Amino acid sequence: MSTLFNYILKIGDDSLILGHRLSEWCGHGPILEEDIAMTNIALDLVGQATTLLNYAGEMEGKGRDADALAFLRFDREYRNLLLVEQPNGDFGMTMMRQFLFDAYRLPLLERLQKSSDVSLAAIAEKSLKETKYHLKHSSEWVIRLGDGTEESHRRVQDALDTLWRYTDELFQEDDAEKELVVSGVIPPMSEIREAWNANVNRVLEEATLTIPTNNWKHSGGRKGMHSEHLGYILAELQYMQRAYPNMEW
Predict the structure, then answer these.
(1) Distances from the Cα of 120 to the Cαs of 89, 106, 110, in angstroms?
(2) What pLDDT is stored for residue 88 in this prediction?
(3) Domain spans of the chain, in order of start
């Protein structure tokens, strides 16, 4: 399989799994407005996943569309970040997970708009407007919770301490992807990390939150080695298609 297929698959999987995670909040949001907001963000992410996975399927040339890639792979075949499969936890945990991802996804899409692959550039351009809102939403909540009550500060700081170990994986790239950088298809991850650091540092400072100083780094999702949480996600996500093969709405 081509390097570009694998790249599109992994960013599509990020959207799919995080979109599913957020959908678990439907009907359980802390207030009605947030219940609707998180559901809409989940729908945005699933829509992005559909577009990306359809394009990946076309590139693969084996007749698999977005549904086949979403519902008919085993856990080791998914290439999503470990970060996006982590449990929702409380509202602070969900917002911190979303913020750390959004702060990475926005500069990535901004640079993918200039991709030498016309289709990928178009997908990035279409997704960018949604992602700007996602980052605005999650940033505001991180600041509000961090600089809020003693309890809200403690909870969101605990979330940051828990999730920080997964952030290094955001910027990993293999040798094959470096060739895509040279050909102008994707940006160098060093640029994305720089933009991510600037945004994250600014928001966390305003939120009066402390960046963890430990060097724990958990990765493996990009290579198909996931946490135990992905299996539970896929059991729910894939149930209908597995139970009733080739079903259509």
Answers:
(1) 33, 15, 12
(2) 97
(3) 3-212+220-243
